[in-house]
Amino acid sequence: MSFRGGRGGGAPRGRGGFGGGRGGGGFRGGRGGAPQSFGPPDQVFEMGTFVHASEGEMVCESTNAKIPFFNAPMYLENKSAVGKVDEVLGPINQVYFTIKPQEGVVATSFKKGDKFYIGGDKLLPLDKFLPKPKPPPGSKPKGVSKRGAAGGRGGRGAPRGVLAGTSEPEVTARSPNAFLLMHPSLTLTFIVFVAGYITAQFSLISRSFELLVFAWENGVFGRALIGLALLSLLFLVILVPLERIAARETRLQRWDIRPGTIEEKGELLTTIMATTDTPPALMRVFWPCGLPRKENSGLLVGWRNSESDIFVVALLNADDSRAIDHALRNGAIFKKPVTSLTKLFQMSKRTRLHVLGSLNGPPPKKFEARHIHATLTESCPYPTIYCPPENNITIQVIMFEMPSPWRMQYMSLKPISLALDEETTAVEETGGREAQYVQPLHGQLSEKIKLHSVRKHPVTVKEESLDAIIGQINCCWEMSTLLNDNVKYRIGRTRSMSVSERVVESATNLGEQAASQLWSLVLLAYPLLIRCFVAFLTAQRAANEVVLRIVEWRLKPDFAALKDVSATAQQLDIRLQQLCYWPTQYKKLRKRKGDLESVNPIHTDYIRFYNSLWLVANDVIIGIALGTFLIENSSGVADWMDRLLKTYTIDGLHETISWLRGKPAGLKLNKELAHFLGDLFLWVVDYWSGSMASVRPNLAKMIWVIGFSSFAGATMPISIFSDLLSILTLHIYSFYMASARIYHWQLTTIISLFHLFRGKKRNVLRKRIDSCDYDIDQLLVGTIMFTLLFFLLPTVLVYYLTFAVARMIIIGVKAGLETLLACLNHFPLFAIMLRTKDSKRLPGGVQFEILDVDRLPAEGRPKDCGHISYVMLKSVPLSFRAMFRQYFQLGGRLRKHYISPRVLLCLITGRFVPPIHRRDLYSLQYSMLPAQRGAIMDVWYNLIGPQPQPQSPRHK
C-alpha cells in the first residue's frame, strides 16, 4: 500500500498531495496557500522508530495513528531537523515511511529504535485514505466537481469526477460512458445493431458452421476434451491440495503466540491456556545429550531465556533447590573466583545461572514452568518432561551435542570465513567494474523486495534469540566443567587422610621438588635463547622490508611496480609478506591460548596460520624435489628447452609466415602486400634467431639457477618460467601489435569512407554520426581509397588472425601457470583435512531435525510423551563449494575478462586485448594477508613484550 498521489504533492503550495491526477481531489487544494514556515514547530509528536538504512535513507516504522505529509520535516526530540518524509508504504495496520536525510545527516548513524518526531500540522488521519461507499446509480454524489476538486501545486490532483480522498472514480455527467450506463435499452440496441451488421457483412454463421465441421472431422474436439481433462486432473491433484495447505497454515499463523508476551511469573504459563478451545502454548527446553543417564536424582542448572524458553547446562547431585539457587545467585557455589566465568556469561548473554528443575525425583503435584520435572533413564536417550494435559502446553525438547572447545568444535549460524575480514573488501574491489556495480544492485534489489513485499513473515522472539542460544551452546561444555570442578556443595563429609597416605604424598612431593629445581635451571637459559631467536627474526624482517620496498617501488605514482609486471617479483612479495605476518599470527594464538577455548575467532586464525604453514612446507618439499631434478639434469633440460623454443618460436613461425606469403587455404591474397608483410616479419624472426643463438650456450646455467631457486619452493621456478615465457615470445607479441595496429587503422578508414558515401560524418566531440555534404572530388578520392583498402583488407586480416591466435595461446598458458601458483599458495589443504577429520571444526550453519520416537524399540521409547516433540539441533559442516569460493571468483574473473563480448569486439576490430591485471589475479593469494603489514620492531615487541618479574618458589 502506498499513500503517494500524483507527481509531487504534500507541500503547502501543491497541486494536490495525497490525492490523484490533474483534476483535483488532493489535500490542501488551490494555488494559493499561506506562507510557509521554515522553523521548527512549537510542539512535536512522535512519528516512528528507526528500523534500518537503505540507499542513504532511513526506513522507519510508524508509531502514530496518523499519516505524515510527503516532504514533511522530521525532527529529533530536541527539535533538530534530520530530513523530510520521502515515501509512505506498507499495509494499513503496519505503516512504514522513509526519511530523506538533509545535508550533514548520515542514515547509518542511527540505531534501531531511535525515535523521530513531526509537527502536528503535518499529519493526516487515516480515514482520508480509506475508500468511501459508492452512491446509488443515477444519483450525483456530493463533492463531485465538473473538473475535479481544486488541487495544489505539488501534484496533478485527482482524476475528473473523483471524490477527495477516495481511490475509485465515480460515474458523473461529464463521463463519456455515463450516457450509455444510464440508458441500458439504448446500449442493448447498439450492441444488437453492431452484431447484426457484422453477421450480414462477413457471413459469420456460415463460416462458424464450416469451422465446426472442420474441427469435428480433424479431431479438434477430442484433443480439447483431453486437454481439459488433464488440466482438471492437474487442478485436483496439485492446486487443490496446495490451497488446502495454504489455508491451514494461514489459520495456524493467526494463533502465533510469542513468548515475549508472557510475564516473568511462572504461574501465568500454567493458566494462560486454560480453555480447550485455544491452541496450546509452546515451551522449549534445550537439552544437552551429554547428561548422565542414571537413576539418581539431581537438580537441573542452566539459563532461563524466558518463562517458555530454558537451557539446561549441567546436572548437580543435590536436593535442596533453594540453597543451590541462592548459591548460584551470589556466586558462592564456586570454591574460588573464576576469571573466565564473566566471559562465559557475556557469551551466553545472561547474568547468572538458575535452578531449572529436578531430574528423576518424585513427581510434583502440579506443573510449574519455573521448576520442571524431567525423567531420564539408561534405556531411553530422550528425557520426559512432566506436564499434565489440562495445562494445554506443548513441550519441545531441542537436543544437541555439546561442542568440545578443546577440540576447537563450535556452532555458528553463518559459514566460517577462511579469509581475513579486513581483506574481503579489498578483494571484492578488484573484481572488475561489473562486479563492483552489479553486486550492490543485487543487494539493493533484495532490500526493495523485503520492504515492498505484500506479506512479510514477522520475526518472532524465538527466532531473534537463536543467536544467543548458539552462544550458549558453544560455552555449555566449559560452564558444565566449571560447575562440576568448582562446586562447593557436597553430600556428606570427606574422610581425612591416614598416616600412610600422608607419607606417600610427602615422598611424591620430594620428587616433584627435585624435578622443579632441574626445570628452574632450564628456565634460566630459556629467556636468553628466546631473545637471540627473536633478534634473528627482527633482522630477517628488516631484510625482508628492503626487498619488499624494491618490488613495490614505482617510478611514478601511476606507473606499474615491479611486482605488477613480473610473476617472480609477485611471488617473492607474497612469500616475504607471509614471513612478516607469521610472528603476529603466532603471538595472537599464544595470547589467546590462556583465554577461553570457546572464543570463536581463534579458530579461524588457527586454520589460517596452520594452512599457510602447511602450504609453504608442501611447496618447499615439492620445490626441493624439482630443484634436485633440474640441477642434476640441467644439460638435458637445457637441450629439451632449446629444441622446444626453436621448433615453435622460430622454425614453426618461419614456416607459417612463408605459408601466408603464398595462397593460404586457397585464399587469393594480394601478392605484393603479402610478400611485403612476410618479408618484414621474416627479417625480425631471423634477427631473433641470431639473438637466441648467443643465449643458447648459457641456457644450462640458467636451468641450474632455476633449480637452485626451487629450494625456496616450487612456486619460484613456476613464476620464473612464466616470466621467461613472456621474454622468449616477445617477437610474437611485437608481430601481434604491429598487425593489429595496421588492421585497426585500415578497418577504421574503411568505416569512415563508408560514412562518406552515405553523406555522413562522425562527430568526434559529440560522439555521434551527423549529416554532411561532400563535393564530387571528395567522393571520387574516397571511392578510390575505399576500393584499394577493401581489396587489401583480407591480406592484412589473415596476418592479424594468425598472430592474434598465437597471442591468445600464450595468454592461456600464462593464465594456467598463474592458476597453478594460486593453488600452491592458497589451496585450502588444512581446511579440507579438518573437514574430513572433524567436520564440527568447520561449521557452515545449523539445521533442525525432527526425531521420530515411534521408530525406537519399546524399551527405549519415552513414556507419556504425547505432548512432547523431540528435535535434534545439528551443526552443518562447511561445504566444499564454500571452501573453494574464491577459486570460483577467480574463474569468473578470467571468464569475464577473456570470454566476454568486449574481448570479442576487440579481436574483431583489431584493438589491443590486455591481459588480466596481476592485482586481480593475485587477490586470491593476498586474501590471507593483512592490508597493511606491521613495522619492523613490532616483531620484537610482539614476541618479547613485557617480561614478568621472577618470583621465589614460596610465592608461587
UniProtKB/TrEMBL annotation:
It is found in: Nucleus, Nucleolus. Keywords: Membrane, Nucleus, Ribonucleoprotein, Ribosome biogenesis, RNA-binding, rRNA processing, Transmembrane, Transmembrane helix. GO terms for cellular component: endoplasmic reticulum; membrane; nucleolus; ribonucleoprotein complex. Coiled coil: none annotated. InterPro entries: Gar1/Naf1_Cbf5-bd_sf, H/ACA_rnp_Gar1/Naf1, PigQ/GPI1, Transl_B-barrel_sf. The chain crosses the membrane at residues 178-200, 220-242, 613-631, 673-690, 702-722, 742-758, 779-802. Belongs to the GAR1 family. PANTHER family: PHOSPHATIDYLINOSITOL N-ACETYLGLUCOSAMINYLTRANSFERASE SUBUNIT Q, PHOSPHATIDYLINOSITOL N-ACETYLGLUCOSAMINYLTRANSFERASE SUBUNIT Q-RELATED. Component of the small nucleolar ribonucleoprotein particles containing H/ACA-type snoRNAs (H/ACA snoRNPs). This is H/ACA ribonucleoprotein complex subunit GAR1. It comes from Drechslerella dactyloides (Nematode-trapping fungus).
